[in-house]
């Protein structure tokens, strides 16, 4: 059934993946009070021990001023910590607070539970095997620059 046409595959895959991502975002009540940019920053902080505000701004393609406002909001919500660098007191390390880590775990758990339930209820064992096999190629797409 595969057409071998990458353009056609891309045109079919892109909207489905976009819809799945939007659905997963909406399904997480724990994540509702945050903007997409705030959620993205929390994900980055979850992947690193700490980052500098300037690093986050570059990663998120934001101005330093906008990142400063975003970080202030996350700090006010108790989701991040700010710690002076032991090497250079002018640099502030931004990291997830205990509440931020708990939020990330809760969001991840909610999304995993929904996706697991959906897979088990609507996909046959053969379809589940196809999804498992697709993880490798999809991972390559995510890493592609």
TrEMBL record:
The keyword DNA-binding applies. Signal peptide: none annotated. InterPro entries: HTH-type_Bedaq_tolerance, HTH_MarR-typ, WH-like_DNA-bd_sf, WH_DNA-bd_sf. Transmembrane segments: none annotated. Residues 10-140 form the HTH marR-type domain. SUPFAM superfamilies: Winged helix' DNA-binding domain (SSF46785). Keywords: DNA-binding. Gene3D superfamilies: Winged helix-like DNA-binding domain superfamily/Winged helix DNA-binding domain. Pfam families: MarR. It comes from the Bacteria. One of its GO terms (molecular function) is DNA binding. This is DNA-binding transcriptional regulator, MarR family. The lineage of its organism: Bacteria, Pseudomonadati, Bacteroidota, Chitinophagia, Chitinophagales.
């Amino acid at each position: 059934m595969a057409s071998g046409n990458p353009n056609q595959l891309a045109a079919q895959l892109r909207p489905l993946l976009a819809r799945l991502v939007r659905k997963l975002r909406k399904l997480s009540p724990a994540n509702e009070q945050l903007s997409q940019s705030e959620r993205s920053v929390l994900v980055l902080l979850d992947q690193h021990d700490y980052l500098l505000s300037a690093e986050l701004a570059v990663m998120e393609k934001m101005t330093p001023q906008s990142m400063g406002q975003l970080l202030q909001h996350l700090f006010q919500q108790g989701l991040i910590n700010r710690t002076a660098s032991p090497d250079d007191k002018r640099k502030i390390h931004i990291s997830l607070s205990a509440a931020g880590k708990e939020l990330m775990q809760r969001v991840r758990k909610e999304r995993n539970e929904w996706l697991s339930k959906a897979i088990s209820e609507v996909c046959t064992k053969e379809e589940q095997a196809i999804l498992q096999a697709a993880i490798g190629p999809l991972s390559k797409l995510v890493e592609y620059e």
